[in-house]
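Bump. Still looking for F-box domain-containing protein structure tokens.
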Amino acid sequence: MLHQSNAPKNSSSPTGIFSHKILIEILSRLSVKVIVRFKCVSKSWNNLISDPTFVDKHLKVSSQNPHLTLSWYPSNGKFKNVLPFSVHRLLNKPSATVSSDDFHRMEIPGRFIGSCNGLLCFLFTSWKPAEPCKNWLSFSNPATRTRSEKLGLLCLSDIHLLGLFEFSFGYVASTRTYKVVAFRAKEIEGLWKSEVKVFSLGGDNSWTNIQSFPVVPYNWLDPYYMLPVSRLNDGVHLSGTINWLAMDESIEEVVIVSLDLSMETYKQFLLPVGFDEVSSSRPAISVLMDRLCFSYDFNKTEFVLWQMKEYGVQESWTQIFKISLRYLQMYLPMHSDGFQLACLYVNGDTVICANKFLNHAFIYNLEDKTVERIRSRNSILWFDEAKDYVESLVSIR
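Sorry for the wait, here they are.
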């Protein structure tokens, strides 16, 4: 004999059918597009889905399905587009043909700064003769299709002194605060001088000056003529810190300088022992497998990737792989000092890398040493702007 439930048939409570815990487990595994629709079920469903604890849980589950942000130009070449693309989709079918998305189309010149917890940060610049250079920020969440207005106006009338700002994007978990770091540096009469500012999303929409670098992130060299270029190397975000490569003149070594976004203080870390054996082509730091990584072209014959197992501890550097460039069947462009590869993804024996000179990406298998190029009909900026992305419910405050 069936027992009739005493619960109301049309209960608006999110636990009317399932237990609260089970419902959260189910919802956290759904896509943002589907979850957003459930907000309309009732006020209690909306409150559950909007709760920061649920947003964090969904983010954690969603991070198991990694994406890359692809910046590309359509065939007419007028506007740059930015949108996420599934890594698993790339691995199953090595092609990255993307379609137009007006929501992310940048109709004015803009630069994609970075991605953090599902939020994308963009920089827009206006530069007219006899007027200060104006920079402002914009944030968007592609999954919820929300974006901010222009924020953080930063005017520069003294470009001749320290040059233009570079920007990095990060997050402070303890205060749930997203921050953008603007920094610039220039060598003046043999000495490096720098300026660092911080913008907090959801704050008073202004920039705050903080202490300058103890050692300055060093300028890259032009790969063809080995001359300084105006752009400093990009900082990478990891667990509430922004990290850059820098030259410490006091010990004559390349180091990592790290900014703690919460305390707004700096630390320095040493690179793997033996880095002095590396050729003068660009080394790079990145975040892969949730750890700080360091890569470089060794002697123009091998691409090497190290991982810092314990953040800040030099002895924890562990070599993850070394790829002989002859297996990649690449050639060195004239006047080049190296291949300039970037590692975009690592999982077991599977590696996705980008080649700066050829502007393409490829999948490499470390075990059988096979390489497969990722095909695309679009002009994708693989090397400079393909960054980690994870779908999330994080709101733009």
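The domain at 65-389 is CATH 2.120.10.30 (Neuraminidase).

Edit: fixed formatting.
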